[in-house]
Design brief:
single chain, about 140 residues
């Protein structure tokens, strides 16, 4: 697994302030997951695990709603591609097995961390960055 730390840096910005602010929140959630992994989930409670999953699910719903509305409002031509990627991410978060998470928290949290890393490197830094360039090139910021 890639050794990635969920520390925000300006290189992660896509140039759309509302999206960058929300992406910082994703990094905060990632740090929470990361901290539990570093501690090997020693002493973690089911409430802590549930809180992280619910927070991730709420973030996904909130963030994608706003992102998709912004894309539609600005007639982004790659909207359908983005929507499909978002739908896959939503399905992943909804599919997190809470029973398995409580039974093997370290293993499942490592999977969640890997998923979040893939999301950052495969979606935010590529797809969302393309939207940021579109917004800038068309003077929509």
């Amino acid at each position: 697994m890639l050794d990635f730390k969920f520390d925000w840096c300006n290189d992660m910005e896509i140039g759309v302030p509302i999206m960058d602010t929300q992406h910082k929140e994703l990094f905060r959630i990632g740090r929470d997951v990361e901290q539990l992994i570093i501690c090997h989930c020693i002493g973690v409670t089911n409430k802590q695990l549930l809180d992280i999953v619910l927070e991730l699910r709420e973030f996904v719903a909130y963030h994608f709603y706003h992102e998709e509305e912004l894309m539609k409002k600005n007639n982004y031509s790659d909207f359908e591609h983005q929507k499909k990627a978002h739908d896959k991410i939503v399905q992943y978060t909804l599919g997190i097995d809470l029973k398995k998470l409580s039974q093997t928290p370290y293993e499942i949290l490592c999977n969640i961390k890997e998923f979040l890393q893939d999301w950052i490197f495969g979606h935010i830094l590529i797809d969302d960055a393309a939207f940021g360039r579109y917004m800038k090139e068309n003077d929509l910021l």
